[in-house]
Description:
Blueprint: E1 23-28, H1 40-43, H2 45-53, E2 79-84, H3 92-107, E3 112-117, H4 123-128, E4 136-141, H5 161-166, E5 171-179, H6 187-196, E6 199-202, H7 203-209, H8 212-215, E7 223-229, H9 251-264, E8 266-273, H10 284-301
Parallel strand pairs: 1-2, 1-3, 3-8, 4-5, 4-7, 5-6, 7-8
Helix pairs in contact: 2-10, 9-10
Amino acid sequence: MTSAPLPFLGLPQRLPDGTTPRAVIVSAGHGSPYPAQDSSSHAMAAQMIRAASQADAPLLTHWDFDLDGPLFGDGPPSCVDQGEIATVAGASAANRAAISGKTREILDLPAVPILIGGDDSVVIPFLEGFDCAEPVWIVQIDAHLDWRDEIKGERYGYSSPMRRASEMAHVTGMVQIGLRGVGSARHAELVDARHYGSRLVTARDIHAEGVEAALRLIPAGARVVVTLDCDALDPAVMPGVAGRSPGGLSYQHVIDLIAGLGQRCRIAGFDLVEFYPKADVDGVSALTASRILVNLIAAVCRQA
């Protein structure tokens, strides 16, 4: 592991008093790309998000109206940024081992791992890392179903994380939120997702009924791992994605989902993936991603 030149929000790599943090941020630039696919732009995502967070770094004790208080309440910072997991373009198996291994290490502290990707393939080893802990529900916030079994012979690519999660013994349920438009899914993948028992909530459902359309499907008290693909958000607020699709969730929808999960369940882990810096406009996507992570940290650090 190497420390990030610009840690998220200026957070330390470890707490100064030696106490165990509530949450640990790490990033992984490379996962399991498809053959001949260049993952270098996605690999820059964490650096851009960390840079966007620096404007808020001096404001940690200021009142945040998203959170109804300062980020860490009346206490000191209880989240750290341990920087980048060493991953290499094309070294798919080694990348997966490094990501799942670091996830297990954080859970052993114990703390809540927060992973910044990278493309959606980093989600698979991140979820695998929870095999050392209690069973979890997966809450996926994404425009796409992600149930492909393989593409070009690759079973661990960015179109397969929910398929692979459904095969993990420690995953006991799944809610997929924000679905819309078209992607890699065919009718067969939809049938498989429903047969597994995944609870599908479209973007239209959220726009019509609010975030409760999804929250009520998650058992109260469940341990949840949240995986957020940036293309779940509408491109008006998140243009920096590889596959823009109109009709997505708003920033408010996403932070309300996070707050609702923090109140209804126990957030055991979180990842944010698929920010594509080359497509960003005036840094809007990096800023939005940064603010989502702020809300996530607050929800985790307010858990009993």
